[in-house]
Amino acid sequence: MSLLAPRSFEAEQYRTLRHLIEQLHKSTGLSVVAISSPGVADGKTTTAINLAGALAQASDARVLLVDVDLRGGALAARLGIDERAGRGLVDAILNAELTLEAVVEVRPDLNLTILPAGRLPRAPFEVLKSPRVEELLAEARRRYDYIVLDTPPLVSFPDCRVIEKCVDGFLIAVAAHKTSRKLLEEALNVTERAKIVGFVFNGDDRHLSRDSYGTYASTRSVDLGGGGWRRLVSSSSRTHRRQTASDH
Q1: How far is the C-alpha of 121 from the C-alpha of 29, rounded, in Å?
Q2: E-only strand ranges, the chain
Q3: What 3-state DSSP class applies to 175?
Q4: pTM across the whole model
Q5: Contact call for residues 116 and 81 (beta carbons, < 8 A)
Q6: Which CATH homologous superfamily contains domain 9-246?
Q7: How far apart are CA 129 and CA 139, in angstroms?
Q8: Cβ contacts of residue 189 below 8 Å, gap of 6+?
Q9: What is the pLDDT of residues 195-213, one digit of tens each?
Q10: What pLDDT digit, counting tens, does each position of 94-153 carry?
Q11: So where are the chain's domains?
């Protein structure tokens, strides 16, 4: 949406999420934001792509979108990148001679740089434990204003726990009618609370009219244990003019 239809309603709603990240960038220095979810198929990859696309609409922004999900690696396929023709994150981790510049795909037409996962390893956790990951993200910090990471699910795999030290903040994608409260609580228990900058609540159609929307985010000041998410980003076709607090 943000990349292919930047003037669409949905893209406008992702700009609201972009505004949150830009404000945190200015106030706290947030640069590396990881998009994850409690379980699979909660919309984290869609959120990562659209957030990166929204950030890249600022002509002076340098944005890098990285596929850190070394178990699924869906980013390249979603963006039409042929990973067989090039190298990716895994290659750069395993081969210290490869620089970040050597493995990224630059898209000047989108003002966006993309780092696909590359060849998926047999032991993703062991690969992500490598000190090389920290080196590559440190290099990315020097080159880009925003680094958006599409990461594995929080509860199903321990991968996010080993890269957490390299991440400034987590956005957690939650799927309506699918993600249970218990699973969300488990995700919060394995994530450093201070690093959770928001929730993206995807696909909520409960009591929503054509003039409402259903994706939510919280800010750092929200008590994550007690709810209080604010409507920030749209997942349907119309806007809701009120911004209210909900306990989900």
Answers
A1: 32
A2: 32-36, 63-67, 105-107, 112-115, 146-150, 169-175, 196-202, 215-217, 229-233, 245-246
A3: strand
A4: 0.83
A5: yes
A6: P-loop containing nucleotide triphosphate hydrolases (3.40.50.300)
A7: 17
A8: none
A9: 999 998 887 665 443 333 3
A10: 999 999 999 999 999 999 999 999 989 999 999 999 999 999 999 999 999 999 999 999
A11: 9-246
